[in-house]
Amino acid sequence: MEIANRTLTVDVVAALKYWPEIIWGGQENPTDPVDLTVLPPFFNEVLKDLPWWNRDWKVSHVEPARPLEIESDHHGHPSRFTEVSVPGTVGSGGGESLPFVAKIGFAGDQLIRFQAKIGDVVLGPAVAPAGRLEPHPFARVLTGLMDLRGIPVKVMARETARSMSTIHMLRSGRLNPDPLLAQEIAKALGMSEADVRVIAGLENAGAAPGRPG
């Protein structure tokens, strides 16, 4: 799904920035209501660009957005975009309905990120090209932690007694981390094993009895 270079209308931006639950410092009254009916057509327009999307399903109801990140240069810690979540409902012509929530990131009037959750299914732009498996999310974190510490692949392979190809596969997301790997990586990074297991999504995984060859 292509979301880059979409320009949001003034009404859509106003609806995404309508946060009635927030009372800013010095504000005595809630924000004046805006027209939220512009959001369902906007969401439906984005979703219909999915080639497999069933156009019988439509976003039929939305609630006010909830800010997750606000574009600002406050206290010298700038945020370059605003991101909000918008809960609602999708329904089909057959009368079925499912809960819906969208996550929208935008800078000015430019849409830069979009994700939708319909029922328990998450829809969003892929990281890998079409036809290729999505990388394990641990890859990006491991790569960042190694780079911050100045640990090259060769050193990580030596510290974990693994092959360099194994470390490359972990950094590219082509290999899932297991509990034993998490233990070895934690030691090499100078972190607790518990922390690395949580980061790797292994907080409920049991200890591995051995390592792969």
TrEMBL record:
The HTH cro/C1-type domain, residue ranges: 165-196
An MF annotation (GO) of this entry: DNA binding
PROSITE patterns documented for this protein: HTH_CROC1 (PS50943)
InterPro entries: Cro/C1-type_HTH, Lambda_DNA-bd_dom_sf
Protein name (database record): HTH cro/C1-type domain-containing protein
Gene source species: Streptomyces davaonensis (strain DSM 101723 / JCM 4913 / KCC S-0913 / 768)
Lineage, top ranks: Bacteria, Bacillati, Actinomycetota, Actinomycetes, Kitasatosporales
